[in-house]
Structures are given as C-alpha cells and as structure tokens.
C-alpha cells in the first residue's frame, strides 16, 4: 500500500499520473526552518520528517497492512532565503516583489520510506525559474484571485501565476510539487513501476 503524506491536490494529481491506487495521510509537523539552516538541507529534512511522522502514525494501528510512505516538500528560494506561504497580502507582495524580474530556485525533495524493511530513499530536485517584471497593480490583482494564499513563494506555476514565468530550467512537475521523473525512479526502487501500474486494465 502506497501512502501520500500530503493533503496537496497538486501532489495527489501528479502522483495519480504514476500510480493508480494510493491512500492519503497528511503529515502534521513543525515546518519552521532551523536557525541558519541551508535551504537544501531544510527541504530534505521536511520530506524526511513528513515521511517518518506518517509512518509512525500508521504504525500505531497494528492492523494496518504493510505500507510505503511518499512525502514531499517544495520551497521557493531566492538569495538563499526560503520563501514559505504568505500569511497575508503584505507578505505576498513582499515575496512577489523579491521574485519580480529575476531568477530564483524551486527545491522539491521526495522521500520514500518503508518502515517494515527500514528502507528509505531521498532525493532533492532543484529547478531555476525566471520571472518577468511584475507591477504592484498585478500583484494586487493576483492576490485577489486567491491563488497565492497557500502557495510557497506566493505563486502557482500551474495556475494564473504562469503569466509571470519567462522560463523554467529543470523539472516543471517539481515546481508544481512532485518531480515525476525522480519520483518514478524512487518508486521503482520499491518495486512500484509506473508504466506497469498504469497499463493494467
């Protein structure tokens, strides 16, 4: 049984392109970065901790069949600073001003964990995203759309936020929330082969 440790509809949709059946059990962890923590170390730690938290939660029920947890974390990074989800319009505006007219990185870590076999695999995918200049009027209009309010870096590349994106170098699906190539490679290490899974009638 495969468990997705996320309530994100974007990750659910992306994972659904790779495997036909999986359950969802969101992770509830403290996502505060450590003082001076490197962005790459942070996203890897988040994916790892989410996987362990969900595995621990499910292991409490002795009737639960064997399972593999898939956890992921995405952070927008500019000048080494991690941009989380904006708390309000002012935070959103500050983030989008920071991203306006320049390049930034999107880091997405994926962790697969089989607690029974004590098998864990973790990878981090880094993509470069280039933004055009964004006006304050556009930032205000974008906020009113409701889209930036629960997104890392205050934008969604798969939605209206795409109008700001000049170019992407790396994995588009990783920027959305789950790198399909790397995830399929990890799943194969656990005996789950995406093409076989999706080709079964």
UniProtKB/TrEMBL annotation:
Transmembrane segments: none annotated. Its cofactor is a divalent metal cation. GO terms for molecular function: hydrolase activity. The record marks 10, 74, 158 as: Important for substrate specificity. The active site is at 73 (proton acceptor). It holds the Pfam family Maf. The keyword Hydrolase applies. It is found in: Cytoplasm. Its EC number is 3.6.1.9. The keyword Hydrolase applies. Keywords: Cytoplasm, Hydrolase, Nucleotide metabolism. It catalyses: dTTP + H2O = dTMP + diphosphate + H(+); UTP + H2O = UMP + diphosphate + H(+). Belongs to the Maf family. YhdE subfamily. Nucleoside triphosphate pyrophosphatase that hydrolyzes dTTP and UTP. May have a dual role in cell division arrest and in preventing the incorporation of modified nucleotides into cellular nucleic acids. This is dTTP/UTP pyrophosphatase. It comes from Marinomonas arenicola.
């Amino acid at each position: 049984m495969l468990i997705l440790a996320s309530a994100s509809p974007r990750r659910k949709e992306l994972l659904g392109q790779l495997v036909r059946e999986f359950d969802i059990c969101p992770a509830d962890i403290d996502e505060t970065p450590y003082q001076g923590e490197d962005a790459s170390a942070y996203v890897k730690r988040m994916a790892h901790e989410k996987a362990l938290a969900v595995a621990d939660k499910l292991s409490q029920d002795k009737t639960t069949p064997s399972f593999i947890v898939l956890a992921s974390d995405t952070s927008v990074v500019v000048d080494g600073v991690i941009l989380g989800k904006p708390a309000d319009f002012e935070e959103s505006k500050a983030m989008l001003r920071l991203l306006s007219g320049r390049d930034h990185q999107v880091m997405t870590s994926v962790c697969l964990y089989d607690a029974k076999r004590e098998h864990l695999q973790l990878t981090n995918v880094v993509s470069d995203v280039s933004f055009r200049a964004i006006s304050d009027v556009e930032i205000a209009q974008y906020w009113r759309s409701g889209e930036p309010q629960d997104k890392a870096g205050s934008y969604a590349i798969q939605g209206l936020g795409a109008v700001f994106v000049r170019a992407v170098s790396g994995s588009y699906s990783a920027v959305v929330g789950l790198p399909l190539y790397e995830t399929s490679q990890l799943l194969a290490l656990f005996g789950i082969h995406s093409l076989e899974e999706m080709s079964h009638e």
